[in-house]
Design brief:
5 strands, Cytidine Deaminase, domain 2, alpha+beta, single chain, elongated, 16% strand, 10 helices
């Protein structure tokens, strides 16, 4: 039965307006973005099916266009709407990081980096440049590489840090393989970056590896 024929208190949009978004299930929230289902299937039922197929909300929002649109009931318009929702979430987290000290929000840092890097098909190397009070100056994707490695040039990072007058930096990159363990090359790179920036009295606060749902911290491992 189409949602428009449901009792008003059960309709996701009306339920959200009456009780707030927290009152909605994942499927109900997704259905608000989908707007319509398909023949014989409500938007909520379609959303529930998609969540099962993609594993969870994160998997659905970060599905690539070809995969998402191969599922019944999802076309380019619905996929674009879901992508806009995911990007708004990432930008909201970045805006949150820009308010106050980044180190006071470790969970937000991890969530932001996972949203940014988790679904990348190849390795990307990014940096959060901070001022001397550990407030975010800029979040930059610096290098992008292949499935298994990225060429990172310390001199380019030093140049960017000087340009921003940064006092500290947090590095991150993804492992498309899904393994969150640092490689020997990851450790050598971190040491090289730490050494290069130390000459400028710029602190390397952490280097995080994003692999699927996992995030590994060099600082927490005692590798910095």
């Amino acid at each position: 039965m189409p949602i428009r024929h449901w009792p008003q208190p059960l309709r996701p949009r009306e339920k959200l307006l009456q009780h707030g978004p927290a009152a909605l299930s994942d499927a109900e929230l997704v259905s608000v973005f989908l707007r319509t289902g398909q023949q014989g299937v409500s938007a909520v039922a379609l959303a529930q099916r998609l969540l099962v197929q993609f594993g969870d909300v994160f998997g659905l929002l970060h599905a690539d266009r070809e995969h998402a649109c191969s599922q019944g009931g999802v076309g380019p318009a619905k996929w674009a709407t879901l992508q806009a929702a995911a990007e708004l979430t990432r930008r909201s987290l970045q805006a949150d990081l820009s308010r106050g000290r980044v180190l006071d929000k470790p969970d937000t840092v991890r969530d932001f980096l996972r949203l940014w890097l988790r679904r990348r098909p190849s390795e990307s190397f990014v940096a959060l440049f901070l001022d001397n009070q550990n407030r975010l100056l800029s979040a930059d994707e610096l290098f992008r590489g292949s499935l298994s490695q990225t060429a990172v040039y310390p001199r380019e990072i030093v140049r960017r840090a000087i340009e921003l007058n940064a006092g500290a930096v947090i590095f991150a990159h993804n492992h498309p393989s899904g393994l969150a363990e640092p490689s020997h090359a990851d450790r050598l790179l971190t040491e090289a970056l730490q050494s290069a920036l130390a000459h400028l009295e710029i602190r390397v606060l952490d280097h995080l590896i994003v692999a699927g749902n996992r995030t590994m911290s060099f600082a927490e491992r005692g590798l910095l």
